[in-house]
Write a structure and sequence with these properties.
2 copies of one chain form a homodimer. Chain A is 33% helix and 38% strand. Chain A contains 3 helices and 4 strands. Chain A has a 4-stranded antiparallel β-sheet. In chain A, helix 1 runs antiparallel to helix 3. The first copy, chain A, starts with 12 loop residues before the first strand and ends with a strand. Chains A and B meet through strand 1, strand 2, strand 3 and strand 4 of A and strand 1, strand 2, strand 3 and strand 4 of B. Strand 4 of chain A pairs antiparallel with strand 4 of chain B.
Amino acid sequence: MITPYRDRPEPPYYAVIITSTPSGTDPEGYAAMGRRMGELGAAQPGYLGRESMYAPDGSDLTVIYYRDPESIRAWQQHPEHLEAQRLGRDRWYARYRVEVARVERTYDFTAPPM
Amino acid sequence: MITPYRDRPEPPYYAVIITSTPSGTDPEGYAAMGRRMGELGAAQPGYLGRESMYAPDGSDLTVIYYRDPESIRAWQQHPEHLEAQRLGRDRWYARYRVEVARVERTYDFTAPPM
């Protein structure tokens, strides 16, 4: 988890849910590109944070949060990100699913001190 | 990942994103309740599937999919689930965040056979 429980604005805001399974080809290149895209993505306008976890088989579940649909579209069309997406389809991914969702309400809980 | 890439309907549908950190109290009871709620929840009307991953520290990122907001509300108010939520806050969770989101569009990719 990269930014656990990082503060987010009041809804509505947006979540991009990414489920992915690597192909197993070029794992070092895939990891390096993941780090680069993580850093570059976090610097984009409207980025609100990210949760990410891996299964033992390398499958990945990531949720990235954004202020609005325009921020998501701008990042999708960023030239360096477009090239990473192309390489991902050519080389690194066996499969992925991306779901763009509008967060409508939230519930938070923090246990009181013992 | 419980139902990787399980088919889902065309958007719109709903995603409930749950980020949670266990307190460390009663891990066996927590795990047993998690299994029970997973089975009971999957049997509810409007349930579309689930993705779930754990970090090494026990933190959990789960996304559960539903047909519509009514299905989510009905499950939130299910008597056995209400009791599980109460026990969770009293005993099992240090922290959690629940985000209810409307999935507006999706992209799928499957690599062609080598």
